[in-house]
Design a protein that fits this description.
It holds the Pfam family adh_short_C2. It comes from Algoriphagus hitonicola. Belongs to the short-chain dehydrogenases/reductases (SDR) family. The chain is an alpha/beta fold. Helices cover 46% and strands 15% of the residues. The chain contains eight helices and seven strands, in the order E-H-E-H-E-H-E-H-E-H-E-H-H-H-E. It has a seven-stranded parallel sheet with strand order 3-2-1-4-5-6-7, with helices on both faces. The radius of gyration is 17 Å and the shape is globular. It starts with 6 loop residues before the first strand and ends in a 6-residue tail after the last strand. The structure holds nicotinamide-adenine-dinucleotide. The site of nicotinamide-adenine-dinucleotide has 29 residues, from helix 1 and helix 6.
């Protein structure tokens, strides 16, 4: 019971990493979890998987200020406090060289992955402060630590979240708000299937094989591997950890 009695909000909560984290949070004693996602279909599926739990399901676009304010306000109204804010929603964009990358796609990736995180802290900090502080967790990527050809918007967005995380750690510390980021290597879920297909249409399997060879522990991460780090950062075990880039990558960047 690592987070007994705590309340959490998870954006991208209907996705691979988000939903697995919600399940782990409940298992570890969370009193309530708000699942925030853009996908109505995803939220329906999350609802069926979290049946019987004290979960809130909120449809929202994290890149829109009014939506972010709304899900923070609704969570506060229902739960009375927010202890854990997991800013995890993200999009991969497309796989194309910078020369061919569509500008509207670039704007979308930056809007969700960067502005979404900024808005999360902008509207979330006052709520966490009311409860005496808390933990903000941002899902970046190994793409925030090194370049990868053909995914410029994604790489730029995940580097940018480190700047937001570090600034958030400094601005949140006086109010006992910790801010950290998680940097997963490829995770065996929808997003990687989409990227594998983008890198080599029709032969995504070979791309997966290639990536796997670059991971010293010899496999992709599971959603649960990332959820474990999101649990550690949410719990009081990480009470002196803030401003940190937590790499969960099987040795990929070693
Ligand atoms: N899958 C990987 O290999 C991998 C590796 C490193 C980092 N990440 C990051 O992990 C996070 C979670 O991704 P995932 O792997 O679970 O993939 P996913 O696609 O299963 O989950 C992402 C979720 O975010 C939601 N979302 C997208 N745009 C949104 C918006 N504007 N507002 C609200 N919700 C929105 C999607 O509907 C989806 O449910 C992302 O930030 C991603 O960039 C993923």
């Amino acid at each position: 019971m690592e987070i007994k009695g705590k309340y959490a909000v998870i954006t991208g909560g209907a996705g691979g990493i988000g939903l697995e984290t919600a399940k782990l949070y409940f298992k570890e004693g969370a009193e309530g979890v708000a699942i925030v996602d853009f996908s109505q279909e995803g939220l329906q599926e999350a609802k069926s998987q979290l049946m019987g739990q004290n979960a809130l399901f909120i449809q929202a676009d994290v890149s829109k200020s009014e939506d972010v304010k709304r899900f923070i306000d609704e969570s506060m109204e229902v739960f009375g406090r927010i202890d854990i804010l997991f800013l995890n929603a993200g999009v991969e964009g497309v796989v194309k060289s910078m020369v061919d990358y569509p500008e509207d796609k670039f704007d979308q990736v930056i809007g969700v992955n960067v502005k979404g995180v900024w808005l999360g802290m902008k509207h979330g900090f006052p709520a966490l402060k009311k409860g005496g502080g808390g933990s903000v967790i941002i899902t970046s990527s190994v793409a925030g630590l090194r370049g990868t050809a053909q995914v410029s918007a994604y790489v730029a967005s995940k580097h940018a979240t480190i700047g937001l995380m570090r600034t958030g750690a400094l601005e949140g510390a006086p109010d006992n708000i910790r801010v950290n980021s998680i940097h997963p290597s490829p995770v065996d879920n929808r997003m990687m299937r989409s990227l594998e297909e983008g890198f080599s249409p029709g032969s995504g399997d070979q791309v997966k094989e290639g990536f796997t060879k670059m991971i010293p522990l010899g496999r992709y991460a599971e959603n649960g591997d990332i959820a474990e780090m999101a649990l550690f950062l949410a719990s009081d075990r990480s009470r002196f950890v803030t401003g940190a880039t937590m790499v969960v990558d099987g040795g990929f960047t070693a």
